[in-house]
């Protein structure tokens, strides 16, 4: 018997801001374009976000030199304000984002199913860089 259990990767960060500010920075397109990229030579020039069950999102990621770009998108499954977001990516993989209050800030824990092209380490590093960018951006507000 074979199993189709997918590898899951988790990244997390603690942000020293209120839950309200963290939530706003995570969901509003005017903020997303300032942090949704994995390295300084990339950017997110466009963001669309319909945060509701059945709603779509599309974040455009591009190399700043124009050499490459792609849309990262999906459909939201579950949304609990300031607590939980689940979605299915356009390629069928599932993801879950949890927001929790801690004494030193807001913990954001994102778990997603790995894809088969890149190593788990590369995927974890890229997604961790994005949440680290989120922390830096949001704490600067």
Automatic annotation (TrEMBL):
Signal peptide: none
Domain Activator of Hsp90 ATPase homologue 1/2-like C-terminal positions: 18-138
SUPFAM superfamilies: Bet v1-like
Pfam families in the cross-refs: AHSA1
Family: Belongs to the AHA1 family.
Name this protein carries in UniProt: Activator of Hsp90 ATPase homologue 1/2-like C-terminal domain-containing protein
Organism (species): Algoriphagus machipongonensis
């Amino acid at each position: 018997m074979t199993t189709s259990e997918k590898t899951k990767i988790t990244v997390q960060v603690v942000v020293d801001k209120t839950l309200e500010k963290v939530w706003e920075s995570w969901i509003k397109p005017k903020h997303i374009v300032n942090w949704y990229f994995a390295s300084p030579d990339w950017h997110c020039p466009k963001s669309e976000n319909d945060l509701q069950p059945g709603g779509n999102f599309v974040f455009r990621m591009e190399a700043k030199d124009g050499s490459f770009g792609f849309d990262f998108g999906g459909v939201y499954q579950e949304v609990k304000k300031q607590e939980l977001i689940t979605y299915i990516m356009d390629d069928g993989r599932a993801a879950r984002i949890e927001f929790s209050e801690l004494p030193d800030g807001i913990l954001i824990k994102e778990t997603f199913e790995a894809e088969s092209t890149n190593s788990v380490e590369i995927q974890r590093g890229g997604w961790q860089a994005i949440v680290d960018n989120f922390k830096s951006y949001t704490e600067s507000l």
